[in-house]
Amino acid sequence: WNSLQDQAIAGWDEADNSTANRRTEFKTSGLTSLAAGNSVSLGAVFAPTPPAAFGDPVGADLAFQYAVPGAGTLNGIVEYVGGENNLVLTINPATGEAAIQNQSPFFDVSIDAYTIASASGKLLTGNAAWNSLQDQGLAAWDQADNSTANRITEFKTSGVTAMPGGGTVLDLGAPVNTAAGTLAASDFTFQFKLSTGETKTGVVAFGPLPTANPNSGDFDDDGDVDGSDFLTWQRALGSAAVPPGSGADGNSNGVVDGPDLAVWRGDFGSATIAAGGSVAAVPEPAAWLLAMAGMIAVGAGRSRRAFGGREGK
Fold first, then answer.
1. Extents of the domains making up the chain
2. pLDDT tens digits along 178-202
3. Could you tell me which residues are beta bridge partners of residue 66?
4. Against a cut of 0.70, is the pTM above it?
5. Fold of 87-206
């Protein structure tokens, strides 16, 4: 906590009853003015508790109050930055482009279905607009044939798509109709199905599309993702990565572990993030590499009932 007293701003005094539950400062004389758009740093005063599960909110218990002469005590706004512990559907309201990203700094996940709904019917289903994962050639993804202006859905008929935290961006083209009237984030909902079978509700945000670091599976930093990167991961398995994200720590969680192998597999063959943040189709790793990794793909039927979709385009 880099208090205003610690920063030697005249007249500020830390309350001597400040605890882990409350931090307080008073100005013993005079006022401190903040011009519009200005801010003052308080250091690293907040230590968030990691959430118990993917999708749980982070730090949702903070409250902020301040006193203004003549107005009394007012409630300020607490704004959390650094990403959601969830999948986020970002829509650019100017262009209608959309992309999905796992912003969680805590969890890697894998998905096998997603659906986007618009209560007012502002979705586009044509190939010139919605650049579905099926259209991009991502293995086993299939558009639901009952996608409409109110709902678009895709299912993965076998396997899953890994989405490391803060990693791969799934670009969906421009599936939002900007010519159909004013857009509002509240008009859209986004759901997805995890590899565990659990259906989750994601976050919908308006703004510029996210980007991701290309070649996060390039563990030996030689400019490509190939078998030698697998060997780098295998030799480092179980070790700490200092700093996080170095070596074979593909998901930047500070340790070389199983999820980093999923990062390598997703990036195998070349950069998996193409210009503009979309996921490019890449060849599957050679069979002998899969055998070395001990990975066995087991096909399983996918339930479409959760999203009400039908297979086929």
1. 87-206, 227-293
2. 998 899 999 999 999 999 999 999 9
3. 74
4. no
5. Immunoglobulin-like (2.60.40)
